[in-house]
Amino acid sequence: MPKVLGLHLQATVVTSLILLQLEHLSSNRFEQSGLQQRIQAGHSRTLEMQQTDIQHCSTSAAKPAFCLSASAFCSILSTAHLTIMASTVSAYKEKMKELSLLSLICSCFHTQPHPNTIYQYGDMEVKQLDKRASGQSFEVILKSPSDLSPESPILSSPPKKRDLSLEELQKRLEAAEERRKNQEAQVLKQLAEKREHEREVLHKALEENNNFSRLAEEKLNYKMELSKEIREAHLAALRERLREKELHAAEVRRNKEQREEISG
């Protein structure tokens, strides 16, 4: 009787492991109808085996306590396997969500890391690190400054400033004084040109003003003369009419006197 229970217990454990593998395969985005049917058949087979164990233990009279503990152990083991399978599948799904499709494909095709490659570029040494789906990294190594090999170029020291003699200092001072004088002469020349231009502008303005005044005076004199001539002509015309009237009046009086003398 214990041997039979041991065989049933091993079969239950093997069945649970098979169910774990099948559910793991089905959760890895390869869900098919045949696998689902096999998983359901395994569940039903496990339940049937547990019921058979319970019936066998209930019919036998020897050691009922052992049979009940074995059945309870099988159910507990199956529940534990199901819990482990569920947690494993959920963790695997979360990991698959975090990984990108390109990273998954690269990890499937390139399982081995690339060997490190070293390139030489003059004084630099470039070391290629592990290539990943996100990019490529390099390590650049420069030669130490203490490398005194004949291939390395020798850096020339900057030329030292030589001391200036008294004559050179004197020449520089004279050149600076000459430049200062030239600059002052240029500034004075510019000021003189500016003043000359101002004088020219002022003279031109005065000349234009004088011309305008002269033209205005000439026009005014012409108008005054013209008006004077017109006034004199008008007065002369009035005097002429008055003289004519006086002559006419004198002639009328003379004719009247003559008619009176003739009639008297």
Keywords:
single chain, 264 residues, mainly alpha, 3-stranded antiparallel β-sheet, 5 helices, 3 strands, elongated, disordered N terminus, Stathmin_CS, Stathmin_sf
Can you summarize this structure?
The protein is mainly alpha-helical and 264 residues long. Helices cover 74% and strands 6% of the residues.
How would you characterize the overall build of this protein?
- This protein is mostly helical and 264 residues long.
- 74% of the residues lie in helices and 6% in strands.
- The chain has five helices and three strands.
- Helix 1 packs antiparallel against helix 2, helix 1 runs parallel beside helix 3 and helix 2 runs antiparallel to helix 3.
- It is elongated.
- 5% of the residues are buried.
